[in-house]
User: What shape does this take?
Amino acid sequence: MNNEEILSLAEQIVKSWNWTTEVSRSQPNQLDVKVLKLEELVPIVVGLRVKRLGYLSAIVGLDLGSAADQFEILYYFCEKNSAIVLRVHTPRVNASLPSLCEIIPSAEVFERELREMFGIDIVGLKTIEHLYLPEDWPDGVFPMLKDTQLPALPVQGEKV
Amino acid sequence: MNTISTLVSMLIFPGGLFLVLAGLFYQWFDRKLLAVLQNRIGPRWFQPLADTIKLLAKEEVIPNGVNPYLFIGLPLVALAGALTAALYVPVAGVAPSYGFSGDLVVVLYLLSLLTLCMGLAGANSLDRFSLVGATRTLTQLFSYEAPFLLALLGPALVAGSWQVGKITTYAVNHWLILTQPIGFIVALIGLMGKLEMPPFDAPEAHTEIVAGALTEYSGRGLAIFDLGRAVELIVGLTLVSSFYLGGVASLPWFIAKTLALLFVMIGLQSLLTRLRIDQTIGLWWRYGTLLVLVQWFFMAFA
Amino acid sequence: METTVTSKSFTVPIGPQHPALKEPGHFQFTVDGEVVTQAYVRLGYAHRGIEKAAESRNWVQDLYLLERVCGICSHIHAFAYCLAVEQLAHVEAPPRAEAIRVLVAELERIHSHFLWMGVSAHEAGFDTLFMYSWRDREKVMDILEGLTGNRVNYSANLLGGVKFDIDATQAKAIREGLDFLEERAGHYLQVLSKDAMFLQRTRGIGVMTRTEAEVLGAVGPTARASFVPRDMRLTAPYSAYRQFPVQMVLDDRGDLEARFEVRVHELFESIRLIREILNNLPSGELSVRLPRRIPAGEAMVRLEAPRGEVFYYIKSNGTDKPERLKVRTPTICNLNSVIRLAVGHQLADVPMILAGIDPCFSCNDRMVTLTDAHNEGERLMTWPQLRQHGIDFYKQVGK
Amino acid sequence: MKSLGTMFPDVTGSLFRKPATENYPEVRKAAPSQLRGLLHLKLASCTGCGLCSMDCPANAIQINMLDRKTRSFTFDYHVDRCTFCGQCLESCRQGALSMSSDEWELAALDKTPFLMRIGDTRNAGTTVAGKPENVSEEEKHS
Assistant: This one.
């Protein structure tokens, strides 16, 4: 399969069902699938897996800031030179996502990371201990949120 | 007068102090040569001595949960065992200070005492690495002990005595390495096992179990165990070279032969990969023991 | 005497500080005698908050921050970042710069594989191989130092190009170094595939089938040793790999021996590639200027680091700082396999299996903020405050 | 196929070879000409624009404007923070910065030599190498 075939097959799969998605080609070798309903994420992933389209390269969490008040989660499925990106949105308050561990065991680390860095509740995730952060990390503090501030760098001209 | 000479022979020469210093020197030789074989510089000549002095000067930490008497006593017993063993062995080419028929067995068990003490020291502690190390130490003890003993009994049989002194006098005129080559190889490798040299260093494999049975030891206890090992190195080398390499009748011969033996052992050490504990046992019981028995079979017909 | 051991099996903790680990990580192996029955991993001991920190630095500063994700494969991270930023800015680095980047990346691969060979030989208790392979690694480090100016964090990249050129004398030095390294690599291949004692510790140990490798998401040489054809240089060629293709090294045995051999064969492949680049180095500029503000957009790049696929995602909002930067390093994908493979093996094999994936914990652990766990919520401390806090804390403990 | 002692040639060879270890403080190997060592500023070319300081990933460079009209400033170089990445050399449009390839033994027992304050254009010479000027204690802490 060349890249074009991979992407058109993926597009076909996504469009052939009655899923509410917006499909676009943001870049020549990338298929962008905006999944509008959270509960459809797992079926779409199953659909891709059945056709053996791509492996889960990474899950990227984005905090869209307090104005949008949403998280955007990107699931990158890569195959050869092409990538299929599933975009999911969830509100920042009570954010939750379905777990992919049942379908893709290697998703576990990414989901644990999302959980501890963004505070997204991953429904169906078995291991919920901290992966990166210390055991005594305070509850409810999620470092990757935009409003969680890091200590500022010493600015130019500051006396030492 | 007699008491003084006894004391001297036990505490200064050839036992005691001399033995410890010689052991440290041989340890340095081991480390230095291994470094040279690995294209490194290696430690300077006083390094083992400096290590020992440093350790002796340091505070000894007795961890919670151990029996303090055992914790302090075991290294002393181990060192005492090794030093006692040296009295029955022609160290430095001097005839053994003591001897009775059958002292070969005593020497071997005194040497095993060191390993046993290390095993007990590990088992005494609650540390997991020590426990795993202790299990491995004792497992390995039971695997090499029999073939090593059998390999040393070969010369004893030929000499017709189980007394180290008599075997040595016999061996001066007979290079038993020529008549009993298999026995020599097993004895050599058995000695490496006894000294826990690579490839038989599974009991203290530091990439797996840190320092094995001695993980919790620091300061004085560790230093004394280390001295015990240094003495064991000398006694072991003396035994094998006096039995198989035509005796050690004088000091120059003693130095030449033991260092040559150590050289071979270091060479092997640098070429071989550590064996897993199950592989060690397999090696000794499957090949080691069998080889010695083959040797005996030949001896019976020769 | 009290003991806390209640059942027959007990847990051996490996790490956070342990001689088998050259970096902090924590593994717990439940053993029954010598056999591992359960394994558990905990990361985060080298967590430095790089992803978060990148959001507060400008595009240029981030280049050097990301170079410090990993001490061994530092170039590949800067490389990936540069590619992503250039993609965002719709700029392409000049061909000569691309070739030099790939050349440094391949030198780094040689460095990393030699280093790994030494470490895993050490885990196996074969210190002679360890010493010799690290001695030979010095050669490639010297080459890198002579070429880039630094021994470890090479800082070869610049947004839009590279900092240095390769002249004839340097090319000659590299070629000579490569001859030596090729000969040594050939020798080590003999050692790794023939030495009976070493094979006892690698052959048939930690076998991972192709299906397992795919399900567990293994990447890089670990995956290729299980016959998963995944090498970004070939499957998704980037930068100068389009002009200078590599050959994929695959092995179908999936055990430690296969992982060793795949890596050594990759050494030969890298050496060949570097020679080819040196012979056909494109001429031209070394760099193009990038604007200080990078246009808004998203970029994703995947590169083949020495340990496997590294994934970079960068989102820009049009300012002089990135909006979000996500790094996914190869080790995190491969660690899964260690946990599964260790079960059923002897404790003595665990360090070898662990070393077999060439783990790099500092790559895994990245982001963090300073907090005070005792206060509710989060308290940010300045450095003097933190220092004072430390002094107070130990005064209290001292009482 | 299997054999024992495959490292034998290396090991025996090493008996007759010099150790690979470099005896560093006694024997110094010449550093390669590309090496990035201590930063040097050619004060005459420097305009004090601050681009280097802005791009420095380690905040090792600080430019303190003393007087905007006469463009007089001091250039503070914190050697202990410098990561020797060479970005400032690339950022500088005037080519005023360079890195020495043989000044790389920069460790010191106290922090005083780590702050190198270079010039004040009002009374500086043409080239000032990165050498510590006497910065008084109170000035540093103020």
